[in-house]
Every structure is written in structure tokens, then in C-alpha cells.
């Protein structure tokens, strides 16, 4: 079975677009993580999901208190605003439209979430983006209403062949598909030590890990019984093998 390598280098400053990973950023309508400018610099395309544009407009200047708010909004202009357009404020839409942001109105589609719409859009940008190494960073994906969070997690499963990382100020979440063995390289300066492995939708009959405080050895996990929460990373590399898809989550350090 092939090994999938994971690393949260997108949390580190820099914008090395010569990297083998092609990043895209989707901004949702929850509080922006304090490290959003770092994610922005890594991304080659930036998409606001409907009301995410309000968050970008209102909150990005707060991350640069010494800078003029208008200057910040010009620097951090999204490439695309996409969604059912029921949340974005008129003045925000007008501001970014005047700067040249593309607007894709999908108000006719009420059966899919704005995140799902945005992920499908980014996926279909290939070959302009290298789909084989595509990684979609989702800012503001966690916090607020639980049904929204559950919908965002569902998108990880709906697009299980694409690397999608849900981010908040406190933690990140991504899917570990059962089709691969996984190596997770820990960026200890910015993430950890608290972590978890969570089966969603089905029992994990057998999960084996290395590198955790409480490693699993052919362990069954399911809701109503054992779920690996409040675990701790012990080293710079975690390995995971499982009979089912798992969610990996790890805390993000306050720096």
C-alpha cells in the first residue's frame, strides 16, 4: 500500500511556489485564524465562500493594526467569490468587484454547501493548478454552528482524493483515507502536542500508530466505545494505518 506524506509547512512563513505542493485557500464565514496571512502567501488561488468575503473585509485589517485598513483590503483581494450569495454584504461585494475579483453566483444551487461549491471550483481549475499535488486550505472552517462544522467535515469525505485541510485558530483537521498508509511530519514549532484520530461514519476495525503518547496496535475504534482523543504527539513523525478512513486533528500553538 502506498504511503501518503503529510506536513503542515503551510503554517510556516514563506511563499515558496517552487514547492511540490500547490496550495489553494478557501475563506469561510467564521472568524479568521490569526495566521491567515501566512496561508494567503502560500496559496496560488484564493476563494471566498460567500460570507467569507465579509470576514476577509472586516477581519484582515485587524491582523495588521498598524496598517491602513484600505491598504490591507487591497493587498488581500480574493481571486474569486463563489456561493449562493445570501450572506455577502452589498458594500463588500461592490468593493471587491471594483478591484477585479471574479464573482460566481450559484444561488440556483441550494443542495450543496458553499464549501463544496468552492472545492469543486478549485478542483476544476486544473490544469491551471497541478491537481495531483493540490492541497486546499480552508480558513474559518471550525467554530460556530455544529451543523456547519459537520457539513465541512462531510466535504472531506465527498472529495476524499483531494487533500483538504480545515483550519481554525485552535486546530486543524484532515482526512486519512484508508487507501494509504500515512506519515505525518509534525511541525513542532507551530502545532501539537494535543492530537486525535477519529472514525466517522464507520467502525475502524483495526488502527495501528507510532509516535503517539498512547499508540494504537490493531485497535478497534468506534463511537460508543474507544475514540483516540486528547492524545499527544511524542516525536517528529507519526505513522497511521487503518482499516477505515480516519480524521486526524492536531492543536495549533498560540505564537
From TrEMBL:
Enzyme Commission designation: 2.7.6.2
Primary location recorded for the protein, binned into one broad class: cytoplasm
UniProt feature coiled coil, ranges: none
Pathway: Cofactor biosynthesis; thiamine diphosphate biosynthesis; thiamine diphosphate from thiamine: step 1/1
Subcellular location field: Cytoplasm, Cytosol
Alphabetical list of Pfam families matching this protein: TPK_B1_binding, TPK_catalytic
Domain of life per record: Eukaryota
GO-annotated molecular function: ATP binding; kinase activity; thiamine binding; thiamine diphosphokinase activity
GO cellular component: cytosol
GO biological process terms held by the UniProt record: thiamine diphosphate biosynthetic process; thiamine metabolic process
Domain Thiamin pyrophosphokinase thiamin-binding: 180-247
Alphabetic keyword roster: ATP-binding, Cytoplasm, Kinase, Nucleotide-binding, Transferase
Catalytic activity of the protein: thiamine + ATP = thiamine diphosphate + AMP + H(+)
Similarity remark: Belongs to the thiamine pyrophosphokinase family.
Function: Catalyzes the phosphorylation of thiamine to thiamine pyrophosphate (TPP). TPP is an active cofactor for enzymes involved in glycolysis and energy production. Plant leaves require high levels of TPP for photosynthesis and carbohydrate metabolism.
Protein's UniProt name: Thiamine pyrophosphokinase
Organism: Salix viminalis
Phylogenetic classification of the source organism: Eukaryota, Viridiplantae, Streptophyta, Embryophyta, Tracheophyta
